Every structure is written in C-alpha cells, then in structure tokens.
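Holo prediction. Input below; ligand is adenosine monophosphate.
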Amino acid sequence: MLGLAGAGKGTQSQILKDELSLSLLSSGDLFRHHQNEGTELGMLAKNYMKNGQLVPDEITINMILDGVNDVGSGGFVLDGFPRTLSQAEALDKALTHDPIDCVVYIRVNEGELLIRLTDRLICRSCGAPYSKRILGPIKDCGKCGGQLYKREDDKPEVVKKRFKAQLPGLHQLVSYYSGQSKLVEVNGDQSVAEVSREALQASSEMMVGNPSK
Ligand code: AMP
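Structure of the complex:
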C-alpha cells in the first residue's frame, strides 16, 4: 500500500486484510510496538520517527522481512513499506518465488493530508484512527474502547518534515511498480468505502490473474 502519511493506508490495509483473509504488516505499527516494549530496535527508530525522518533502510528492511517470514506461506498486506527504492528491491529479492501481486497507491493532495493528520487521534490499543473534526469531542475508541491519543509526529511541523522525507521515495516507487505493471492508483479524496471498493477490486483481479494464487 503506497501513499503519503495520512492517505488512508492503515484504514484501507485493515479492510483488505479482513476482506481477503490476509495478514497485515505495518512498518509504523511495528516500530511503535517496539518502542512501547522498549526494545533496542524501538530505541533505534525513536528519534527518526519523532523528527519525521525515515528510519534507515537496513533496520526497516530487516524488521519487515522478519515479519514476512513469521507470516509464513499465507498472503499479506504491507502498510507503509516499502518507502524507498532500496526497500522495494530488497522485498522483491526476498519474494523471488512468490512475488507481490498488486501495489495500491492512494493519492491525496498534501494540503488535505496536513488537515487530516493534524486533526487525527489514534486508538492506543487497536490503532484505529479518528477525526476530531468529523466526530467531535471523543475520548474512547468506538471499536475496542481503547484510549485515544495524538501521535507526536502528527504535529504540523513534523508532518511537513514527513512529507519531505517521503515524497522522493514515493515518486520512485510509483515508477518502479508502474514499470512492473503492478500499480493501481486510487483517488484517496473519495470516501473510505469508495477507496476500498476500488482497492479491493484491483487487488482481487490481480490476485486472480496470478495463477499461483
Ligand atoms: P507511519 O505509521 O507509516 O506513518 O510511520 C511512522 C514513522 O515510522 C515514519 O514517519 C518513519 O519514521 C517510520 N517508518 C515507517 N515505515 C517506514 C519505512 N518503510 N521506512 C523508513 N521509515 C519508516
């Protein structure tokens, strides 16, 4: 799942996971989990994340490929990975025998993303995002009752740094996966239901088109 921060990758990945019975690996969630657990990896990633920078490729690639191994032979959705060309190449190398089927790029303009990110709250337990603008003063997660919090890197000054750090890689990945005929671009300004309808249709078609599935 490709897209800038706030484009809806997390929400749409969760929907694809449920609808297509896949596992879900989110690089951002994995980093945050490591930080909460106080692991060495979490500590390594912390300052990069706090400053809106990308965590170095080697650390990120090792973490995700470990996750891919743990998933085993079942299919999976990747949310937030790859974000650089080196990460995409490492992924392709690791999946030579069972390559990825489809790359969904959720495109939203930066102005809208800035509004979405600075407005959002996240559930500490299940990671569900909420918009203060749309839902008003909410305190707990409607899905699991977990506590809602504001991510440190969703402050406007950090969000701008995140876009700057993510844009060059995003552009490279869009051409990389277009070149492999795996890219599907979805207009992320639409409703969640509309985006997921298009994302689901495209990924189901591409999975069906792959004889190994
Ligand atoms: P996210 O939850 O996807 O918005 O990611 C939060 C932060 O985690 C990013 O701003 C980066 O610091 C780090 N991160 C997540 N995924 C990656 C990645 N694929 N490569 C490098 N850093 C990442």
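Residues 5, 27-28, 31, 48-49, 52-55, 60, 80-83, 87, 153, 162 surround adenosine monophosphate (CB under 6 Å). That is the main takeaway for now.
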